[in-house]
Amino acid sequence: MTKSTCDISDKLHPNVQYLEPIYKSYGAKTAFSGRIVTIKCFEDNSLVEEALKTNGKDSVLVIDAGGSMNCAMLGDKRVTDAINNKWEGIIVNGVIRDSAVINKMPIGIRSLGVCPLKSVKKGVGKNNLIVNFSNVEFTPNQYLYADEDGVIVTKNKVNL
């Protein structure tokens, strides 16, 4: 990502949404951006697994897990799927696991924290819908930019 969130904010404010600075950064990639793809699920990562096994080129997966801190929505196996399928990054309104391994992997992830317990797989959840958390409305096909200064969402791809 060559565009910094600060530069994008300076250019487009107030037409930018800002994720609250409560999300922790994981993965070896500190900056990433892409077209938003969404999943809404609660303590069930079945749809996360399905999505990360598809082509994610130029895309960021946004997972609304309801802010649950009870179980991880992804770990090193799902992150390996994401890397193999060219996902740019992942935002999790929930927690992840295998963070020590993930921190060495070439991807950017933001989540609320970590938990060693894996999620269930019952196939429950929805994808490709507008999700809202942390003062941001994540709309499929809009754009997300993340770096060391934060995470922002814009309606269109930014050309600086």
Overall shape:
globular
So, the CATH homologous superfamily? Answer: Ribonuclease E inhibitor RraA/RraA-like
The Cα radius of gyration reads: 14 Å
Distance between the termini: 12 Å
Number of helices: 4
Please give a structural write-up.
There is one protein chain. The protein is an alpha/beta fold. The chain has a single domain, classed as Ribonuclease E inhibitor RraA/RraA-like (Glucose Oxidase, domain 1, 3-Layer(bba) Sandwich). Helix content is 18%, strand content 33%. The protein is built from four helices and eleven strands, in the order αβββαβαβαββββββ. The strands form two sheets. Strands 1, 2, 3, 4, 5, 6, 7, 10 and 11 form a nine-stranded mixed sheet that branches. A two-stranded antiparallel sheet has the order 8-9. Strand 3 (32-40), helix 2 (46-52) and strand 4 form a beta-alpha-beta unit. The chain is globular and about 40 Å long.
Topology:
Elements: H1 5-12, E1 17-18, E2 24-26, E3 32-40, H2 46-52, E4 59-64, H3 76-84, E5 89-96, H4 99-102, E6 108-114, E7 126-127, E8 131-133, E9 136-138, E10 143-147, E11 150-154
Parallel strand pairs: 3-4, 4-5, 5-6
Antiparallel strand pairs: 1-11, 2-6, 3-7, 3-10, 8-9, 10-11
Notable characteristics:
11 strands, 160 residues, two-stranded antiparallel sheet, Glucose Oxidase, domain 1, alpha/beta, single chain
